[in-house]
Amino acid sequence: MEFGSIFAFMGLGGQEIFLIALFILLFFGAKKIPELMRGLGQGINEFKNATKDVKENIEKGMEDSATK
């Protein structure tokens, strides 16, 4: 999925994205943004790993119940 299509899906246009980015820059400052993005990326990776583990457990449980 393209980056722009995500915002289009959410109903955000260019002006809204610009205002959100400006607010974040003013609120957190330029030095904190990379740290925030790094933390956000780590959180997303942890969420992906957790959902992957849950999916594998469900699939394994279904396979175990099918063999019984």
Protein architecture, described:
The protein is mainly α. It folds into two domains: 1-28; 31-68. It has three helices and no strands. The mean pLDDT is 83.
Radius of gyration, rounded? 19 Å
Main sheet: strands, sense, barrel:
none
Give the CA-CA distance, first to last residue: 40 Å
Determine the oligomeric state from the structure: single chain
Subcellular location: Cell membrane
Family: Belongs to the TatA/E family.
GO molecular function: protein transmembrane transporter activity
Organism: Arundinibacter roseus
SSE topology sketch:
Elements: H1 3-10, H2 14-28, H3 33-67
Structural features:
68 residues, mainly alpha, 2 domains, 3 helices, 0% strand, elongated
Q: Would you summarize the structure shown here?
A:
This protein is mostly helical.
